[in-house]
């Protein structure tokens, strides 16, 4: 135990700054643990935090979860090594690692249904040998003229 007077002298010599905050130290520790992830996983890393005794890592894409779960054992082993090498016991404590994604809702643009342009019935019918075919085209022309508003 350090006497109070001696502690005050030490505090004056080494003033605490915002860089000494536990939250910042925890964030730095998480960034060091991020190095246990492969380069591909690091690219999609969004953020991480400790919830209870679980380190929750959020990725930007759902497909990366499968790769994380496939390599989870190796990643946890690498994280243990980094944890031990950097002496993070006082800063960060977790027993399990879980990966999740941030789901961004897809915005669907509601568009007015487009009506196709209607024919005006102004087309030429070439006279041919087949009078029945000419008659059918005449019926189509008449229907187009009648339906045009």
List keywords for this structure.
13% strand; alpha+beta; 149 residues; 3-stranded mixed beta sheet; single chain; 2 domains; GMP Synthetase, Chain A, domain 3
Notes on the protein architecture:
- With 149 residues, the chain is of the alpha+beta class.
- The protein has 2 domains: 20-101, 2-Layer Sandwich (GMP Synthetase, Chain A, domain 3); 118-149.
- The chain contains 6 helices and 3 strands; from the N terminus they run H-H-H-E-E-H-H-E-H.
- The protein has helices at 4-13, 22-34, 39-43, 63-70, 72-85, 131-147; strands at 45-51, 54-59, 96-101.
- The longest helix has 17 residues, at 131-147.
- The mean pLDDT is 79.
Report, as a whole number of angstroms, the end-to-end distance: 96 Å
Number of strands: 3
> How large is the share of residues in beta strands?
5-15%
CATH fold-type name of the largest domain: GMP Synthetase, Chain A, domain 3
Radius of gyration: 35 Å
Question: What is the approximate shape?
Answer: rod-shaped
- Helix-strand category: alpha+beta
Largest β sheet strand count, sense and barrel closure: 3 strands, mixed
CATH architecture verdict of the largest domain: 2-Layer Sandwich
Number of helices: 6
What is the mean pLDDT? 79
């Amino acid at each position: 135990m350090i006497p109070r007077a001696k502690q005050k002298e030490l505090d004056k010599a080494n003033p605490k700054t915002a860089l000494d905050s536990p939250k910042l130290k925890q964030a730095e520790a998480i960034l060091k643990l991020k190095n246990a992830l492969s380069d591909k996983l690091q690219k999609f890393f969004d953020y991480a935090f400790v919830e209870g005794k679980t380190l929750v890592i959020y990725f930007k894409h759902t497909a990366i979860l499968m790769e994380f779960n496939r390599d989870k054992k190796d990643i946890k082993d690498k994280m243990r090594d980094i944890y031990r090498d950097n002496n993070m016991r006082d800063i960060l404590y977790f027993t399990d690692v879980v990966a999740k994604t941030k789901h961004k809702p897809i915005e669907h643009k509601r568009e007015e249904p487009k009506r196709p342009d209607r024919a005006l019935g102004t087309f030429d019918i070439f006279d041919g040998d087949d009078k029945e075919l000419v008659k059918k085209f005449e019926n189509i022309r008449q229907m187009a003229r009648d339906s045009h508003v």
